[in-house]
Amino acid sequence: MVPGGPMLVEGPVEVLLEDGSVVTSDRFLVALCVCRRSRRFPFCDTSHRRRTSRGTEAPSTPRASADPPSPPRRRPPDQHS
After folding, report:
1. Measured between alpha carbons, how far is 3 from 49 in angstroms, rounded to an integer?
2. What's the pLDDT tens digit per position in 10-54?
3. What share of the chain is helix, strand, coil (3-state, %, to 5)?
4. How many angstroms separate the CA atoms of 74 and 69, rounded?
5. At a CB cut-off of 8 Å and minimum separation 6, what does 60 contact?
6. Nearest to 77 by CA among 30, 32, 15
7. Whole-angstrom Cα distance, residue 74 to residue 22?
8. What integer pLDDT is reported at residue 21 of this predicted model?
9. What pLDDT shows up at residue 54?
10. Does the pTM of the predicted model rise above 0.85?
11. What pLDDT does residue 25 have?
12. What are the CB-based long-range contacts (under 8 Å, 24+) for 49-53?
């Protein structure tokens, strides 16, 4: 865990969501959101950086990325009959 940030997990991973669907990532290191502010939940999009613990806006600092994050792939829930 990163204090105040995401849970880092060695990938690739499959995450079972509350609705029963499965989200996968093929990355070698995956940041899972624990603050639940992410627009890409369950994956971290650094939304935790936008606010401090006191509720004030944190200064935004632009960060360059080597490559854009790949979109998560969703698999529908298993249908048991």
Report:
1. 11
2. 989 999 989 999 999 999 999 989 888 888 888 888 888 876 555
3. 5, 25, 70
4. 15
5. 49, 50
6. 15
7. 6
8. 93
9. 57
10. no
11. 92
12. 49/5, 53/4
Distance, CA of 72 to CA of 22 (rounded, Å): 10
The two structure tokens encoding residue 29: 């290191």
Q: Which long-range contacts (CB under 8 A, 24 or more apart) does 73-81 make?
A: 73/23, 73/24, 73/25, 74/21, 74/22, 74/23, 75/21, 75/22, 75/23, 75/24, 76/21, 77/19, 77/20, 77/21, 77/22, 78/20
Q: What is the DSSP letter of 43?
A: B
Residues 6+ apart with CB under 8 A from 58: 49, 50, 51, 52
- Give dist(CA 24, CA 12) in Å, integer: 7
